[in-house]
Design brief:
The structure holds two protein chains of two kinds. By secondary structure, chain A is mostly helical. In chain B, helix 1 runs antiparallel to helix 2 and helix 2 packs antiparallel against helix 3. Chain B is built from six helices and no strands. Classes of the chains: A mainly alpha, B mainly alpha.
Chain lengths: 105, 162
């Protein structure tokens, strides 16, 4: 645990981070910005896992493993999303959400 | 870190918001260092700050002019979303502060060897199956990303020059 920092403060910080991600996810009109917001949300959840593991159950490591898996899945998701965005940009020359209609056949 | 996060979702310029996201990720790696999970912090720095940020910057540079201003949504929409998010934050924080966490006093340091043994153990609490599944998933994602990014080139007699 961190000396002088309680678990409440870190959980408050992660919930603020999570809702910033939600805000960006709703308000931005660009696919890459939405990707960035999703990264913020995933990071907030990872920090939650790690901090709860460290503060409440310091003898086991389950939270660390779950965090590793979340990070790996986030990397995979980002790679796929970037490839889809680039392919989409080739076809319709835009990455705005309102122009994206070609994906639904 | 919070300021950087707000800036990364509010900045009008694409590249700047990616750089703000980089600051947020580095701050989170700092939190991991503070709670003594050095391996996790190293993963965070290499995978996120090294891999994902570079990938996103590449895609931004491929699909944008750098100085292009982003289109933002209407003010009333942004205001409504901000109010909803504030209500959500307030609810979360009240719930968190009303719960009594039983914090265990500890100062143990987790070594990388323990994490490796846990990931590869067959006993109860071992994570060998998700570990293997996620390696297969990563391989599938890499193949899929390459196929999608190649796009029309796979179809024969395509006269589209890319």
């Amino acid at each position: 645990m961190i000396e002088g920092i309680s678990i409440y403060e870190i959980l408050t910080l992660t919930s603020i981070l999570f809702f910033i991600g939600i805000y960006g996810f709703i308000t931005r009109k660009n696919l890459i910005s939405i990707l960035i917001s999703v990264e913020l949300i995933l990071n907030a959840s990872v920090v939650n896992f790690v901090v709860i593991n460290k503060y409440l159950y310091p003898d086991i490591l389950q939270g660390v493993f779950v965090s590793i898996f979340i990070i790996a899945i986030a990397a995979a998701e980002t790679a796929l999303a970037v490839s889809i965005i680039i392919n989409l940009y080739r076809q319709i020359s835009s990455v705005e959400v309102k122009d994206t209609e070609i994906m639904k056949y | 870190m919070i300021v950087s996060a707000i800036a990364s979702v509010a900045s009008r310029k694409m590249l700047r918001s990616v750089i703000y996201l980089l600051f947020v990720l580095s701050g989170i790696a700092g939190i991991f260092f503070l709670v003594d999970y050095n391996f996790l912090a190293a993963i965070q720095l290499t995978v996120y700050a090294g891999g994902i940020i570079v990938l996103v910057i590449f895609s931004v540079l491929l699909v944008h002019h750098i100085e292009m201003k982003l289109e933002v949504s209407k003010f009333i929409n942004r205001l409504l979303t901000a109010i909803a998010c504030l209500i959500g934050i307030i609810i979360f924080v009240t719930i968190i502060y009303s719960y009594d966490f039983k914090v265990a006093e500890n100062s143990t340091t987790t070594t990388t060897a323990e994490i490796g043994m846990g990931l590869l153990s067959y006993e109860a609490g071992g994570f060998i199956l998700p570990f293997e599944v996620i390696s297969v998933l990563l391989l599938a994602v890499m193949v899929g990303a390459i196929v999608i990014a190649k796009g029309k080139m796979l179809i024969p007699k395509s006269d589209e020059s890319i």
